TrEMBL record:
GO terms under biological process: epigenetic regulation of gene expression
InterPro entries for the chain: HDACs (IPR000286), His_deacetylse_dom (IPR023801), His_deacetylse_dom_sf (IPR037138), Ureohydrolase_dom_sf (IPR023696)
Gene Ontology terms, MF aspect: deacetylase activity
UniProt source species: Tursiops truncatus
Protein name from the UniProt record: Polyamine deacetylase HDAC10 isoform X11
Highest taxon, organism lineage: Eukaryota
Amino acid sequence: MGTALVYHEDMTAARLLWDDPECEIECPERLTTALERLQQRGLEQRCLQLAAREASEAELGLVHSPEYVALVRGTQALGTGELQTLSGQYDAVYFHPSTFHCARLAVGAALQLVDAVLAGAVRNGLALVRPPGHHSQRAAANGFCVFNNVAIAARHAQRQHGLHRILIVDWDVHHGQGIQYIFEDDPSVLYFSWHRYEHGRFWPYLRESDADAVGQGPGLGFTVNLPWNQSPGPRGEDPAVLPGRASTDAPWPQVGMGNADYVAAFLHVLLPVAFEFNPELVLVSAGFDSAIGDPEGQMQATPECFAHLTQLLQVLAGGRVCAVLEGGYHLESLSQSVCMMVQALLGDPAPPLSGPMVPHGSALESIQSVRVAQAPHWMSLQQQGVAPVLSPSPYSPEGRPSSLLLTGRPEFKAAATQDVAALSSLLDQPRLNPTPPVRTAVALAAPDAALALPSDVLCEEGSAPQEETQAWARPHEALAQDRALTALGKVLYLLDRILDGQVSSGVAVTPACAAAATLDVAIRCGLSHGAQRLLCLAVGQLDRPPDLTDDGRLEGF
């Protein structure tokens, strides 16, 4: 099974027909730029490409009222003035004669993706769509969103495929209140959203976007909101009120959450709850206005972070992950982030994350507020019962105070200009992470005809040279036996192939009596190749090599 990419060029037809600075960022180039970058990277060609279909009005009716669907259908016949008047009745919305067609394609793309994944035709995929959907409500457009693509996809999965537990992960920088309203009393859908909140001062300015909004009735605990709040100003003063959707004139530091904050949110909130919920399907409201450079979010997370987040989600629901594009308005940051997500869906290794992986203090406060609010509803949070033991960092990934977050203060103007240039340079760098020719290899000391391996797993037949194997084995009595020595040669050969980029990951079998000695050799071999950071995870009782106890390059569990 592979990865699906669902798209239709007709979704670029709708565009703003009048002057509106708030809405002009939601433009067709968001799709065309992302698709071009996928093609340049060779990623589109590696996916199963599906042309989006229009959703039926009955499918739209899974979430939306007939009256609202009829209203949007009627926009096809309106002139520019009438469209502008109607758009003004909603918050941050514009209609175009092609909006109904585009929005039906966006929903249809999400439904096609869900059908392909649940039918087993593909393992996962991305629906590259516009208009976005997560703000749209039963009878109202909102925040560039016309129909709620992900919510309809969830209802479709329930009705057509009989699913009972669906996880929706919304990493857009804005709260997807439309999804929350639709499912807030439904225990069959777990909705997780992180979003810039600023204690209610950031769009959409809703009290129900805060951490203590956890659902209603039977849905209590199935809404998980993680609000990103502004760091306090100097000397402890309160932050300034932030007007508009994304103010750049605030005098105190913006939230500016980065890679460490996003990973911490997954590890300390989302994943414990998600494992307990045990979803049958994961839907991602994939908004990339939460990435670095975006004018809406003003966050610091790099595109690579979304590859790591995607990988973390793939351990859920048997890997059945369906991502649907939401926001993202810095075209280069958007396209890079989309590529990183698709690479992860395809199974490519995620590039290393840049900068110190230490969350900001305000991020930790937000995470802890969510854990407290959700603890009555989830055993996994009750058992942990304490705040994450992490230290806040006031620094940007480069290890210095982030001037991008202080652009409103005159003394930081020059630094902000430098950071804009640095961002451009960062996003211009090729972010290729070549996929090793072999995804997974198995090293066996002796062939096992009874072992049935998946077709894409290689049974590694090579072995390290005998002299090299004997040299590594010499300090260990447990490796003196022929069987253990043969297994060690296989392990060394597999390790070399992994470190040389020929194999992504592997499994080796060694005699139980030689396991500790083989692990010792593997650690030393990895360090001898110049590895600066090595994590050793042992399931069972294995002692750390005594002479490596104080080696800062090695971490063991």
